[in-house]
Every structure is written in C-alpha cells, then in structure tokens.
C-alpha cells in the first residue's frame, strides 16, 4: 500500500499570525463541538485515500494534509448534531458523509488548479506543480470515485441524489466561469450564478445531508440547504475580494491570480462599471485581452480601492451572511446553532 499521512497530519489547520487570527474563535468553537466526529472523519479520509498505486495516496495526501479549515465537512458534522443525530449504536453516517464531502471538494481543487495553472494551494506548492497536471487530474478522478463509493455505502438514495447533484452543479459552475472569463459584459447576476455553482452548491449539500441522516422534516433540510447556499456565496465573495487586498501568506495562493487569468469577479465588475473611459480601456486590455504588464496588477488594485469595490463586495457578502443566519432560526437555540451563526459572521470578518 502507499504511504499516507497520519490522522494527526490531517487535522484542522487554523491560520495564525494573520489579520484573521482574532476572528478564529468562531471556527475553533465549531471544531471543539464536533472534535470527536472530526477525528473520526479524518480517519475515514486516511483509510479511503489508500491505494496500491502509490502515487495516488502520495498526491492525495499532499493536498489533504496541506491543511485548510475543513469547513465543508465541519458543516456536515455540525448540521447533523444540530438536528439531533444520535451518539449510539456506532452511528457514523454523518462522519462518512463528511469525508465524502471533503473528497468532492479536494477533487475539485485538484482539477481547478490544473485549469487555472495555479502554483500555490494554501501557501504550499500545488499538487500539479509538484506532481504534474496529468497525475493531478487522474487523482482528482480517483477522489470523486471514492466519494461516490461512500455515498453508495451510505445506502440512502436521497443522500446520493443531493451529493451527485451538487457534484454536477460544481462542474457546471466551473464551466460557466470559463465561459464568462475575460468577458466584462458579465452581469452581477451571472457572476452570482457562477459562484453559486462552483462554491455554494457544495456548502448547501454538506449542510442538507446533516438533516437527512438525522431523519428531520423537509423544512429543516431546506433551512440548512439555504444556510449553506448563502454561506457559500458569502465565502466566495470574500475570497474574490481577498485576491486584491490580502497578502500572499494570508491568502495561501499567489496574489492577483484572478486578475492574471482574467476572471470576472465582483470587485472587477464594480470598478469597471464605475470607471471612466480610460479606466474601462485599462480593464478591457488587461482582463479581456490579457495584455498585461508588470505594473498592471498594482494599478488594478488602486482602481478597485479607489471605487470602493472591496466595500461593495463586503456589503454583498454581509447581506448573504444575514440571510444564512436567518435560515437557522427554524432551529431551537443551541451551541450548534450559535456556532453555525458565528461561522457565518467569521466568513466576512476575514476581510476586516
């Protein structure tokens, strides 16, 4: 068998020494509430990454062990406990499905980094930079297959329907982003459609299946799905803003990647629409034609700052956060509900 990282290596890694450090209490509180579940989830991840083809666990471990906040599987675990999923009879459906969610997410990261030609992931060399594009794509396929094995093992057609639909929606979102890339005529509504697909759909599914495994009524499923969808949109809005304001160590990827690739994000759309003729010409040259010079990123960041585009993006994200928190009000007050609400606030606080 191939050598994989130990469960301890796969634990949640919170960013420290950065501007977001003071806001991490919300995420730490959520981790503390589901700590035993998360440790069990990490063990499932390690076991299911193994393969007699040694390159598979080596490459999979490279990206999974790189850390990250494990936010999506955390949402599955917390949603299940919020809905009263029991601690008895060795029940662990939520644990296996949280691992499934992480595999779907990790597979998309492997594929995205190849498409985007990214060199960094969470501050470390991306898997495609270390192992090459072909291996990254194929191991991403392996992780998708592992995710579907976990769904089949769970035995619920409803869970299978939710997660398979999410996987299809993620792919659609990524293709839609490819279609809108370099197109400054993209509307804000179209941009939101992209991020709902590529990011928020998995947040929504991760939360909804927590209610499914706990056999809760459909209204609670819908509430958790809505919470996850709004949270995921806010999360991506903030990520898109951070590409123009964060330092590289905080962001965990090369600053300005979105700009260099000509991705249409809300900060760019706001600055473009507010700009004069000369500014619009700059954006068309750099984003639509990808005719960029060494100083263009700095100029783009100045234009975005000058037109308050980061503030506009943050305001939009804050609106979605409030909608996410409102969706939780169907549930009785509990430590899990409060932690999930606080995590929604944490999402936008990363920009403050």
Features:
Farnesyl Diphosphate Synthase, mainly alpha, 352 residues, disordered N terminus, 1% strand, single chain
Question: What is the CATH C level class, in words?
Answer: Mainly Alpha
Q: What oligomerization state is this entry in? A: single chain
Count of beta strands: 2
Helix content: over 70%
Cα radius of gyration in angstroms? 20 Å
Strand fraction: under 5%
The CATH homologous superfamily corresponds to: Farnesyl Diphosphate Synthase
Distance between the termini: 45 Å
**Domains (count):** 1
What is the N-to-C succession of helices and strands?
HHHHHEEHHHHHHHHHHHH
- Class by helix and strand content? mainly alpha
Question: Which whole number gives the mean pLDDT?
Answer: 87
Describe it.
This protein is mainly α and 352 residues long. The protein has a single domain (7-349), classed as Farnesyl Diphosphate Synthase (Orthogonal Bundle), CATH 1.10.600. It is 70% helix and 1% strand. The protein is built from 17 helices and two strands. A two-stranded antiparallel ribbon has the order 1-2. Strand 1 (120-121) and strand 2 form a beta hairpin. Helix 13 crosses helix 15 (296-306). The longest helix has 26 residues, at 188-213. Residues 1-22 have low confidence and may be disordered.
Describe the secondary structure blueprint for this structure.
Elements: H1 25-33, H2 35-49, H3 55-64, H4 71-82, H5 93-116, E1 120-121, E2 124-125, H6 127-131, H7 133-154, H8 157-180, H9 188-213, H10 218-242, H11 248-251, H12 257-261, H13 266-274, H14 277-288, H15 296-306, H16 309-327, H17 335-349
Antiparallel strand pairs: 1-2
